[in-house]
Structure formats: structure tokens, C-alpha cells
Amino acid sequence: MSFSRHVFGAVQRRAFSASTRSNSKVAVLGASGGIGQPLSLLLKLNPRVSELALYDVRGGPGVAADISHINTKSTVKGYDPTPSGLKECLTGAEIVLIPAGVPRKPGMTRDDLFNTNASIVRDLAKACADAAPEANILIISNPVNSTVPITAEVFKSKGVYNPKRLFGVTTLDVVRASRFISQLKGTDPANENITVVGGHSGATIVPLLSQSGYELKGDQLDEYIHRVQFGGDEVVQAKGGAGSATLSMAMAGARFAESLLKAAQGEKGVIEPTFVDSPLYKDQGCDFFASNVELGPNGVEKIHPVGKITPHEQKLLDVCLKDLAGNIKKGVAFAKENP
Ligand code: NAD
Ligand code: LMR
Predict the structure, then answer these.
(1) Hey, whose CA ends up nearest to atom 1 of ligand 2?
(2) Residues in domain Lactate/malate dehydrogenase C-terminal (predicted)?
(3) Which end of the chain has fewer beta carbons closer than 10 Å to its terminal beta carbon, N or C?
(4) What is the number of domains present in the chain?
(5) Model confidence over 256-285: pLDDT tens digits?
(6) Is 17 among the domain residues?
(7) What is the pTM of this model?
(8) Which of 169, 201, 231 corresponds to the end of one domain?
């Protein structure tokens, strides 16, 4: 048997043998993009997903037709922006993943995407609030530090905001933090789980290496922290104008969706880092903050505090909170001024 047949056969056998509940509709908005396509593919391989609804301003039905031939049980349907397309895509969804919007080019910050992506996310959030007010909404579109507060404001304005069901996807930061430490230490990344808190851009990304018992020093520590904070820029540079991380992001988004489905289907102790409406630093202007969050059938079950950190990590956190408060304020102001 060829290698690829062997690998994909194994993936499918694992997929079919996992315990499942039969009705979980998952929608992807921005499904034909760089993230949307591989993310949809990974969701099609997930036996916890029974129905996959793929929407994009262009190409949703084509991606859906392609993915629908994969021999796993879930149904797949693509939707165009016809008057009822987005509504039909969202109706009945338990999870909505939103990677719609433009990615960075070299030289740009995530905040440079604000002018384009803020209104895209606002409009999609409106559709979600109307058609799927009880769904878990997973925001991938950047700048996450601002697009999550925008979504919250839209839901509030429609009277359906549930802070337990809105998530900024920061999983990729943790995936990177684990991978990068494993490269330094020669360990298996699957066994690494580095806590990362704060937000999702540059200095707002704060890895807490000390909590995993590591003590990097001097330049090695600085280089590690820089790599986690600016890992996205590494990919943007390497792609040379063709976009930002898509494949690793698809994996991270699929992992987060899988965790939510596991928790919804009764599994206990499912913990993921995510950017949520959080009490931790509200007194410092940060109504949203990423930390480890226990997930449950109602979404957010328990928000873990940051915990014990070193004085150096505290300094990083102080810088993070200042930047993050500004990003959040900008998102809230946009949503209020441009309803
Ligand atoms: P892309 O340009 O390849 O794909 C974006 C897709 O969104 C396109 O197919 C486009 O047609 C679609 N789209 C645009 N407006 C839409 C709308 N109103 N409704 C539905 N679909 C719409 O970009 P990409 O590489 O997939 O990145 C998407 C976003 O994800 C970017 O903002 C990027 O910065 C962000 N991102 C976030 C993370 C993270 O960790 N949270 C990681 C990587 C990328
Ligand atoms: C990432 O972390 O890879 C994403 O936020 C995309 C980007 O712009 O870097």
C-alpha cells in the first residue's frame, strides 16, 4: 500500500472510530480563502461534525463540492452571498468559524488590517446575531484584539450577547510556543504545552515559559519570546506578499473547534487558551484577555487566572495590557460609531 493511502486510511479509521454525537453543524465564513479551505478540509475529517456549511463572497459552493467527495459521513453545502445564502448557512450552526478578511503583507501590522476587516467582521457578526444567536462564534480574522470586541458590540446591540460563546482564536500562538521550545530543547512538541496569555499581536502575545519549568536565559530567552510574539511575521515574510499563515492556522482553528465539540459533547477538563470576555484585567481597560479557559457545554466554563509568573514575565504582561487596552477600545469605538 502506498504511503499516502496508508496515512489517509489510518486517519479515516481513527475518524470513524471516535465516539460521536450525530448533530453538530459547523459553519465557516470565508471558506474559500487560504485558511478557509484547509480548515474546512480538517473539519470534514472530524467525525464530531455532522454538517459543514461553507460560505464565502466567492467560491463557497466550489470548495464545498470538492470537499463533499471525501468519504466521511458529514454533509457539506456551500453558500454564495445571495439574499438568503448567509442566513441559510448559519441557521442551526453550533459553531461558526470566521476567517473572512484580508491577510497581511510584509511591512504591515495586524492593526493595518483594521480598516478593511472591521467592517467585514461587523457585517458577518450581524448575520450571526440574527441567524445563529446561540452559536459559539470563533473569530480568526485579524486584528483579533479588535475584531472580537467588535463582534461583542454587535451582539450587544441586538440584545443577544452571551460572553460565554464568543472566542478569539489564539491557539496558533500556543501551537508555535510549543513547537519553538521543542526545537530548542529537542523534545517532542506533542508533549509541550506552553501557556500563552494576553492578545494576538506582537507584544500582546505573552508566553509564560516559567510555568512549564523552563528557564531560558539572556539572548536565548529574548529570542524565544520574540519568535513567539512575531511568529506570524516569519510566515508573512517567507510568503513574500502572498499572505500569512494559513495551514498552521487551519490546524489551530480545527483543534479549537474540536475542543469545543468535545466539551459540548460532555468531555470534562477540556482547556484551551482563548481571547474571551474576561474579568482578569477589566480594571486595566482590558475587557477581553486570552488565558487558559476550561470549555463546557455552555462555552466558557471557567477562566483560569494567569497564575505565578516571573518579574520578567510581569514586565511583558504590563506592556501587553497597555497595547491591548488600546486595541479593544478601538474595536468598541468602531462598532459604536459604525453600527
Ligand atoms: P484569504 O484572503 O486567503 O482568505 C480570506 C477569504 O475571506 C477569501 O476567500 C475572501 O473571499 C473571504 N471574504 C472576504 N470578505 C468576506 C465576507 N464579507 N464574507 C465572507 N467571506 C469573505 O486570507 P487568509 O489567509 O485566509 O486570512 C484570513 C484572515 O485570518 C486574515 O485577516 C488573517 O490576518 C487572519 N489570520 C488570523 C490568524 C489567527 O491566529 N487568529 C492566523 C492567520 C491568519
Ligand atoms: C498569525 O499569527 O500568523 C496571524 O495572525 C497572521 C498574521 O498576520 O501574522
Answers:
(1) 232
(2) 170-334
(3) N
(4) 2
(5) 999 999 999 999 999 999 999 999 999 999
(6) no
(7) 0.95
(8) 169
